[in-house]
Amino acid sequence: MHVIVVGLSHKTAPVEIREKLAVPESRLREALSRLCTYPGVREGLLLSTCNRVEVYAVVEDLESGYGRVQEFLADTHLSLSSEHLTPHLYWHAGDRAISHLFRVASSLDSMIVGESQILGQIKDAFEVALTHKASGLLLNKIVKKAISVAKRVRTETKIAETAVSISYAAVELAKKIFSNLTEKTVLLIGAGEMAKLAARHLIANGVHQVRITTRNFQHGLELAQKFNGTAVPFEEYKTELAGADIVLVSTGASHYLVTADDVQRAMRQRMNRPMFLIDISVPRNIDPAVRPIDDAFLFDIDDLHMRVEQNREDRLREATKAEQMVVEEVAVLGQWLQSLEVTPTIVALRGRTEDIKRREVDKVLARLAHLSPEDRAAVEALASAIVNKMVHGTMVTLKAEATSSSGAAYVDAARRFFSLEDTPAPYPPAQTGAQDMPQESNDGNGANRFSGASLVQHTTKEQSRRVS
Amino acid sequence: MSSVFFMLTMGLYFVSTVCYLAYLLRRAETLSKVSLGITAAGFATHTVALVARMADSSQAQLPTFHEALSFFSWMLILVFLAVEFRRQLHVLGSFIVPLALVSLVTAAAFRSDGASSLQPVFKTLWVHVTLSMLGTVGFAVAFVAGVMYLIQDGLLKSKRFNVLYAKLPALDYLDHLNQQSIVMGFPLLTLGIISGAFSAEIVRGTYVNWNPEQTWAMVTWGFYFAVLVGRLTIGWRAKRAAYLTIIGFAGVILTLIGVVLKSHGSVS
Fold first, then answer.
1. 3-state DSSP call for residue A43?
2. What's the pLDDT tens digit per position in A111-167?
3. d(Cα A436, Cα A139) in Å, to the nearest integer?
4. Cβ neighbours of B58 (radius 10 Å)
5. How far apart are CA B138 and CA A81, in angstroms?
């Protein structure tokens, strides 16, 4: 059984391909059930966002599994063929697939590293897979873990703390001047797109009072309605300055609308209450001579850009910490997956029963010192017979179900019934070798096929490409 | 016993000062928790040291410069812990704890020197010293808020968004802290001065004799009065208030030095 992911993202495919492949929410259900009808596909989860389309699946056989999932992806859109898709796809299996999901969930693979939307999208995709029973024991565990890893990354690193857009940067700066934005008044002079966006973010952060002035008063009125604010005639913008804590300027004017004198006058009227001026216009509309005025803080578009750039660097620094966490968590999950292997479980089960038998027999024989060697042998034989008969059914079932869809569930149950959780799954040397040398799988001897293979093997992209 | 705890406190404040200063430069937040723990431990031992000292000197009935400074340092930490628990303003520790350490080290310098104690008077002197010191704590916090304000103001003006920028709170919060501290400190200092005048009357039969430290104390009082009134009437807030409170605190320190230098002579 193999955990795999096949998909494409903003890193590998242009939007023309992504939009074709994207599965709208209304068709998610149908797509999932189609995925599960492919032979050899045991579990499936479909993640479709504007930046990525990925299929996570548990398949019986690695090579054919990759093929099936790719086929499924090509089938989602009439104009797409498998060859068409191949150059844009990535394939990962085992640890790499899990690590990929963890990175995606933690927003390490996002266009804007640290954005929070993706986690919600994964939760939704999982929800759909759960309700349609497309996701089973393995994917459930893996996706739940991915969600918890993402939460850990968010709380333990500062990856999502900083602003990475101009309009957010304006809010962030405002919060370093005013601790509480609810009592503050924003004055919008002109209404460029970016200024509107910034105003919206400020309102989302608690600003109540919005005053808007544009050259076209009618336009101002419409905007005022949208922002729940007040429109003021353009001629009065200078007198409005004194009442504004945050001034957002973005007009098409080619000269300075707000001069140092204007601000100085406003500051006197404000009795030196700090004022935050944001100039998003190019050419600039606020005279840079405003900068040295005490308690007036002027930021132009370049300042905001610089802040965003810095934040981006900060995020990348935090991202390296997050990557380390992902590595740790993949290792933890890898251990669990390894324990679901049939052979090591049978070995562990045998070891455990043998151990119990040994101890009990020794205890009894120590008390029955008078027994003859034949009698002692008989006691031992009795114990062995009981133990073997007791676990015989379990062993047979495990072996028989090894290749069935519920194999992993049986293994998991057996490990719990016989308290094998704490016993590390010992790896037969031959298989460990196969795991370390992935090229063997290409010899066609099936060394990496389910019965002898590990769920957590590393399959490189190049290798899987050859396969598909 | 008090001296053992006193030394222990000094050690703990020293370590937490180092931690808090390192915290200023480091991105990680974990250091603030360590520093806070050490500060809290120091505060506990400090409390024990103060209580033990009071028990020791209860018969003597005279407040010494050592006690006044130690009490000042203890109050500073108390105020810091209160703000920290309400606002989680870790960075405040990086400014207040060093100040508390300096005051404690100064206190240590006056410890064994019996002659440096203020002249014995009556219980009013205790009241005078306690109230004046509480007022001074207010001004010290205002001073710290002022320093933090000027740093954050400078960082914003020069667009240097470094670690310190990230850790310092919003400007208007610092201005608010500055105002609150003076609003609390000023009446306490006023009462301190009045009780000082009463002590002087009891000892010397005159309320005020305009010796240099009394004059300085009155100047300081007048200065803070102006700062308070100026804020309310003509907008002495924000950056201006930050500068004024830093200057004012310098005046307070000078008054205290005057008290120490004159302590062999008359009562302040």
1. strand
2. 878 888 889 999 999 999 999 889 888 899 999 999 999 999 988 888 877 767 788
3. 25
4. 8
5. 75
Residues of B in contact with A173 (CB under 8 A): 156
Whether B123 and B140 share a structural domain: yes
Which of A15, A50, A306, A331 is flagged as catalytic? A50
Does the distance separating the beta carbons of A274 and B238 come in below 8 Å? yes
Assess whether B134 and B102 both reside in one domain. Answer: no
Its ipTM equals: 0.86
Q: Dump strand ranges (E) for A173-295.
A: 185-189, 209-213, 230-231, 246-249, 275-279
Q: Residue B200 has which token pair? A: 């002087």
Name the helix (H) or strand (E) containing A55: strand A52-59
Nearest to A68 by CA among A27, A99, A36, A32: A36
For residue range B93-129, list pLDDT tens digits in order.
999 999 999 999 988 887 654 444 445 555 667 788 8
Q: Is B189 exposed, middle or buried (0-12, 13-18, 19+ CB in 10 A)?
A: buried
Give residue B135's domain range: 118-268
* C-alpha pair distances (Å), B214 with each of A217, B71, B85, B252, B259: 64, 22, 37, 12, 9
**Chain A, nearest residue to B166 by Cα:** A176
pLDDT in tens, B179-195: 999 999 999 999 998 88
Contact state of A175 with B170 under an 8 Å Cβ cutoff: yes
* Helix orientation angle between B91-109 and B30-56, rounded to the nearest 10 degrees: 30
Domain boundary among B96, B113, B130: B113
Instruction: Assign B263 a pLDDT band (cuts: 50, 70, 90).
Output: low
C-alpha dihedral sign at A168, A171, A177, A180: negative
* Structural domains of chain B, count: 2
Contact A177 B156 (CB under 8 A): yes
Following DSSP, what letter does each residue of A437-458 receive, concatenated?
-GGGGGGTS-TTSGGG--TT-B
**Catalytic-residue membership of A36:** no
Q: What domains lie within chain A, and their CATH numbers?
A: 2-162 (3.30.460.30), 166-308 (3.40.50.720), 339-467 (no CATH)
